[in-house]
Amino acid sequence: MSEAVCDASELLEVLWGRGQEATHAVTVSPSQLRALLVIEQDEGTNLRALGEAIGSSPPSVSRLCDRMEAMGLVERRPSRTSRREVELSLSPRGRVLLRESRANRKREVAAVLAVMGPAALDALAEGLAAFRAAAAQIEGRRGASASDGAASVANSA
């Protein structure tokens, strides 16, 4: 089963790649796209939180943001709560890129869904809902473990 899910995931990556290529703005790498999506979800996030979300080291995240800022996709501003941190937000150009990219990806996926029968579509929707719920459950456990660890460090100090 996991092989079938990985195969489907790879196909989605191909479809999304086509969708991104059709975006007339700028071409971004997969890591830049992931970072843009995280920043969109958590406007004002800092470099540390972004790094944790995308699984990258602080120097890598800093360079990634340097490139995205140079491309006009993100903006950095001093944090309102800490002088040592910066907050990240999408620029208008970054928002346009994500909107165009999503629209193009939707068209690519819709073309595939259009040739599927109703029973297959229902099964896909049900399976994807269950997959999303299971993934959220795992992410919830990871978040709880990270907070538990932070709380125990804080309590020991």
Automatic annotation (TrEMBL):
InterPro entries reported for this sequence: HTH_MarR-typ (IPR000835), MarR/SlyA-like (IPR039422), Tscrpt_reg_MarR-type_CS (IPR023187), WH-like_DNA-bd_sf (IPR036388), WH_DNA-bd_sf (IPR036390)
Keywords carried by this UniProt record: DNA-binding, Transcription, Transcription regulation
GO biological process: response to stress
Signal peptide coordinates: none
SUPFAM superfamilies: Winged helix' DNA-binding domain (SSF46785)
Top-level taxonomic group: Bacteria
Gene Ontology terms for molecular function: DNA binding; DNA-binding transcription factor activity
Domain HTH marR-type as annotated: residue spans: 1-133
Protein name: MarR family transcriptional regulator
